[in-house]
Amino acid sequence: VYATRQLALKVMHEAPERAVTLLERAAKAGNASNLMNDLKPLITSGNLRAIELADNEIVAKEPKKAFELALLTADKNKAVAIRLYERAIDAGDEYASTGNLANLISEEEPERARKLYERAISAGETRYATNNLADLIAHNEPERAKELYEQAISAGDKYYAPRNLALLIIDRDPNRAISLLETAAKNGNKRNFAVDLETVIKNGNTKAIRLYESALIVKDKTKANDLAELIKGRMPERADDLYRLAIAAGDERYATFNLACL
């Protein structure tokens, strides 16, 4: 029982098919307590035999475990993950599996995805399902999307929803949008941060400029060059200072040229 499992773990990388066979033998002999974890490297790489073994030995006995197996398979085998999420939902997992299934099918089946997000929200998943539903409908139903983003933020989503809401309202309420982008940045979401702020910075919004400085330039003074490029038309003296700051921090190539042009 134990030696078979240990041998499987030892040969897993160089002989994955043999490892699956050995883990199957160990499971049938009663050593299946760590089977999902043991199979994880093979499942995430898309090994169908490993997925089938986990399905037969784990999910068949505990249907809600389909959710865990679906998470591991989604990147490499979307079709299998969809079927597993559907089985988890049938087993009663309305909270997480509905939202994850909606994420997988939102492009191909937006109406079905919408209904699944709504089911997840009804089941109490008001944090991420609301944000994802808002993303799905934002283009056609911006006011409803705004309400959903607000709900997601209230439910504790400080990472995705603040940025998404900011981008939705940035033209009509730039100061609120900047505050939301700041919230997202403080919670780790700085994806496309400079690009998100670009329009309001070009318009001379001092709050956006201060946020850019505190979030990016404090940590990397060479980024002062990028900010200077955005404000040089409206605030040439401030741009001059920023170019010099970037040069002092080591940006001899771009900031020096840009300062000369200014």
A few lines on this structure:
This protein has 262 residues and is mainly α. It has 17 helices and no strands.
Structure description:
With 262 residues, the protein is mainly α. The chain has 17 helices and no strands. Helix 1 packs antiparallel against helix 2 (16-28) and helix 5 (66-73) runs antiparallel to helix 6 (78-90). The longest helix has 13 residues, at 16-28.
List keywords for this structure.
0% strand; mainly alpha; 262 residues
Q: End-to-end distance, in Å?
A: 75 Å
Largest sheet, in brief, is: none
User: What's the mean pLDDT score?
Assistant: 95
Q: In oligomeric terms, what are we looking at? A: single chain
Number of helices: 17
Q: Percent range for helical residues?
A: over 70%
Class by SSE composition: mainly alpha
For the CA atoms, what is the radius of gyration?
A: 25 Å
How is the secondary structure organized here?
Elements: H1 2-11, H2 16-28, H3 35-44, H4 48-59, H5 66-73, H6 78-90, H7 97-105, H8 110-122, H9 128-137, H10 142-154, H11 160-169, H12 174-186, H13 193-202, H14 206-217, H15 224-231, H16 236-248, H17 254-261
Helix pairs in contact: 1-2, 2-3, 2-4, 3-4, 5-6, 6-7, 7-8, 8-9, 9-10, 10-11, 11-12, 12-13, 12-14, 13-14, 15-16, 16-17
